[in-house]
Amino acid sequence: MPIAINTEKPKTQHYELPTAFFELVLGRNMKYSSCYFSNDSSSLEDAEEAMLALYCQRAKVEDGQSVLDVGCGWGSLSLYIARKYSNCKITGLCNSKTQKAFIDEKCRKRGIQNVEIIVGDISTFEHEGTYDRVLSIEMFEHMKNYGELLKKIGRWMKEDSLLFVHYFCHKTFAYHFEDVNDDDWITRHFFSGGTMPSANLLLYFQEDVTIVDHWLLNGKHYANTSEEWLKRMDKEIVAIKEIMEMTYGKEEAVKWMVYWRTFFIAVAELFGYSNGEEWMVSHFLFKKK
């Protein structure tokens, strides 16, 4: 298969919805991926920071390095590294002009000058630069051909650089998100062309990179994350209704509000299932082969 399929559809499903919606629902860091709840009293902001810190620890990020953030979203990791490691030079790759505009504005307001954001489709994007660290957070779930993807990323790695990957997964099975039945609404509206990887899937693709370390995080961290997003959506439902009406029109707005609420509930139930031991989060650390 190609590196990715249907790349335009998921972009419109998630990332071209007005940023104002995500600012109301996500935490302060705008982290649209699993957070890490170190204890029961953790706020969403605490959990965002804890996971971002864990990435940097596991990826062995050090001040002064060049860092590539592949699939950088609204810049939660890029901006975190810029804040914590002021001598790092960070390049973020995203597939959305609205996300680039958001991050660029954050950098301007905060006086951050060591972050550059590039808009591109990872499946066709070519780049000459090489980096000390490459990190990718919840982008691999939108991909298909991991061999070709890791070969491409490997070209952006220096001889001694490391690649860190975070994806959500099933403990045993990898499967496609497919729209074949009436009840495949998550595929249809949120993950067209997506993949549910298995916990060890990337270990089968070591032609261009070699595994250094591998960790599993209990799915309850993601369940708690999605519960927090749902709480914030419900708290801001009046403002969100206005955003949905502006985006989809009055007739479609209620339907899309229900879709998003149900999506957050479904994520919370999926990753909370079997005490978080069925669907979970997998972290990988690779070196260049």
From TrEMBL:
Q: Tell me, what is one Gene Ontology molecular-function annotation carried by this entry?
A: methyltransferase activity
Please indicate if the UniProt record lists Nucleotidyltransferase as a keyword. Answer: no
- A Pfam family (short name) is CMAS
By sequence similarity, the record places it as follows: Belongs to the CFA/CMAS family.
Species of origin: Brassica carinata (Ethiopian mustard)
Keyword Ubl conjugation tagged: no
| Alphabetical list of InterPro entries matching this protein | SAM-dependent_MTases_sf
Keywords of the record, alphabetical order, are: Methyltransferase, S-adenosyl-L-methionine, Transferase
Supply the name of the protein. Uncharacterized protein
GO terms classed as biological process: methylation
User: Which superkingdom?
Assistant: Eukaryota
